[in-house]
Hints:
The complex is a heterodimer.
Chain A lengths: L14 H36 L3 H6 L13 H8 L3 H32 L5 H11 L5 H14 L10 H23 L4 H9 L4 H12 L1 H17 L2 H6 L8 H11 L4 H21 L1 H10 L4
Helix pairs in contact in A: 1-13, 3-13, 4-7, 4-10, 4-12, 5-7, 7-10, 8-9, 10-14, 12-13, 13-14
Chain B lengths: L7 H10 L2 H8 L7 H29 L16 H8 L14 H27 L5 H13 L2 H11 L8 H8 L14 H26 L3 H9 L4 H30 L2 H6 L11 H11 L3 H29 L3
Helix pairs in contact in B: 1-2, 4-14, 5-9, 5-11, 6-9, 9-11, 11-14, 13-14
Amino acid sequence: MSVLxxxxxxxxxxxxxxxxxxxxxxxxxxxxxxxxxxxxxxTLGLLVTSFRPRSDIQSTGWWxxxxxxxxxxxxxxxxxxxGMLQAFANTVFIAVPSTLxxxxxxxxxxxxxxxxxxxFRDTLFLIVVGLLMVPVQVAFIPVLTGFxxxxxxxxxxxxxxxxxxxxxxxxxxxxxxxxxxxxITLPPxxxxxxxxxxxxxxxxFRKIVVPVSVPAIAxxxxxxxxxxxxxxxxxxxxxxDASKFPMTRAIQNLLxxxxxxxxxxxxxxxxxxxxxxxxxxxLQRYFVQGLLAGSIK
Amino acid sequence: MGVAPQGxxxxxxxxxxxxxxxxxxxxxGPESPRWGVTLLFLxxxxxxxxxxxxxxxxxxxxxxxxxxxxxxxxxxxxxDNYTRLFADPDFINLSTFPPSGALWNNLxxxxxxxxxxxxxxxIIAVVAARVRYESVVKAIVFIPMSIAATALAVIWxxxxxxxxxxxxxxxxxxxxxxxxxxxxxxxxxxxxALIGVGIWGSVGFATVILSAAVKSIPAEVIxxxxxxxATERQIFFRMILPMVSLPMSVLAVTLVVNxxxxxxxxxxxxxGGPGTSSQVIxxxxxxxxxxxxxxxxGSAVAVTMLVLLVPILIFNVRRFRTSSVT
Lengths: 297, 326
């Protein structure tokens, strides 16, 4: 390497050098162990707390492991008395359509942008890339109030309609961008051959493009699902009926009502985290790919 | 940036075998367009984008020049909302030292959060690559990426609790005789306490991105440099750093966008408090529009967010146009 040409000292393994190397390795292991602790302990502390009786939480810290009594009572209480079971179901009910709708719609549009010809195709695609950066905030007020003026009697925020449509619409620029960039790498001859044989675009889309793109579609689907699952802002704005609040809103309500009732908060927070953690540990590869690709969102 | 498709290499071979670009161009569409079909593929996305994104964005821009009570156009006020916004000390106050306000807090986030996330991410990526349990370290720092900001907020409110029987941080301080610190209650500390949570949540992301970039340097190249006697410092500054500078800039842009859109964490952890000391721009927009009912004013905040993102929008479109539009 030419960049290293000047002033390179040739190192020979001497006994002193070996000690220095071993010390370096120790520093590396200790440093990484410390990082591991800092990134694990806060979550672990809350997990332990979620299983401790309320009276214990008030009197000693969770790290007092010699004094550990475990109970599932906090979970029972938060699920039943605090309505977290309903909120869990609401989160599922918000997240599933808000994932499937954009998946389908994005795949269709991405196919058109990759394998169909129409005027201004590249310009339209650049507009989609531009829309990636438009913050959701610019849509809040018109969607909530302007639509009511345009279509009297339309009460989308009473149900899930508003939050589904808003999540779907705001997922589109990114989803189209991501899937189009994948579709475009598919072998052109594959599509060409199918066209020569008289296959329609609908057939090519369903029978060729979607099946061979499963990894990309899965990565995007997981990304979008967790995005919606974890969202608070859109739920704050677009879900107005308290019986339909997702878990993020339920926990935020718990915090403002019982800010120091850690037995409830800890259990609630873990109920919110459990699905993403399962997804993370079981589908880590797709999940990381989706997030890496999502880095421009 | 894109999902790493397994078939990518294979695809490229295939394409070059089959006469490359000409075939590609032919396959990208039949010569006579079938309008109906094309429209069917594009209509759902196009309609939703127009109704829920493009039209509302234009509406919000217009509303920001209106008093806009109840979210409808009633009285045009020119630039009034904007002059009020930038005169509001809760939004930006440069007359004190240190300055304060939501916009200033976003700047604090950009300076500290972005730089420390990238710094720690790079260090962990490079150092972890030298041990056998690398994937475990990366998984551990990555876990917070899967967790909702709402849950992150609960986890860290717990760690930051001023009660030394509950908050780990104050318990540790207490064990060395330091009085409990009100991490989230002190206007001078709260922003840094929040930025700390943000960093904790995002380092895993930076680590994974930068780790992939570091790995793209062939191991033999680094090894031969080592054999030739290059020090670790030389390897880091002269080989690794130049190789990761592009992914690092993309990462920085992403993190800046994160900061401008930052909302959930602040809303749950402090609600902008104590007082107004930890507000950020997205929080101000929400509060002004939906709690104070000042829709015109809230629109001006939303448009300010959009304006802050426009340079990044242009950067992305330019980058994309030069790189891949055929």
